[in-house]
Every structure is written in C-alpha cells, then in structure tokens.
Amino acid sequence: MVEYSNQLDMAFHALSDATRRGILDRLSRGPASVSELAKPYESSFAAILQHVQVLEASGLIVTEKRGRTRECRISSNAVQRVEQWLSERRQLWESRFDRLGILLENDSPVDAGSPHSETNGDKS
Fold it and tell me: How does pLDDT run across 63-73, given as a tens digit for each residue?
C-alpha cells in the first residue's frame, strides 16, 4: 500500500505542472523524441529534459535511447493506476451524494419557525 501511495504521490506531483501535462498530452498521440517535445515550448532543451525525467521517475512515461535520440512514450500502467484511484474517489462521492439526495427527499418540510418559511408573516 505504501508503494502504491508513493507512486500516486509522484504521479500527481508530475501532473501538477502545466508543461508536464502538455508533454503527456503530446505523447497521448504517440511516441516522440525529447527534441520533438521541446519544440512548442520556449524553455531550454535542458528544462524540458528535466520535465521528462520527472515524468519518467513518476512512471507516467518511459524513455528509450535510440541512437542519439531519446524516445518517450506514455506508460499505460501508470496512467491506469491514477485513473483507477480517481475513479474510486468519484464512485465514493457519487454514492455519498446519492445518499444525501435520498435523505433530503425523505426529510420533513421546513419548520414553521424557520426564517425561510412562508408562515413567518413575510409572504412577499
């Protein structure tokens, strides 16, 4: 469980940066070299390489050296772990909201002494 938690922590840290999310968005369309990933950004190649290293350390991407270039691609396993965690939380909150909705539907009408009640003399 601790390892799972650490992996999620690293993944969410990696996702917290807009440049890294942009890199992941680009990689969702297919593998790319670090140079290709750097093109749309005004950042230096070294800065983009650091972003790639953070993404790789988080497990969200994998890189492979091919000749003089480093090719990057998304790691579907890591993305699925993040997606599963988010899905579990969404299901939990949807269940809670469903129960709250049922509770509110079955609740008695507003008390006559409530300031929002029409029986307090203010029927305007």
Answer: 999 888 889 99
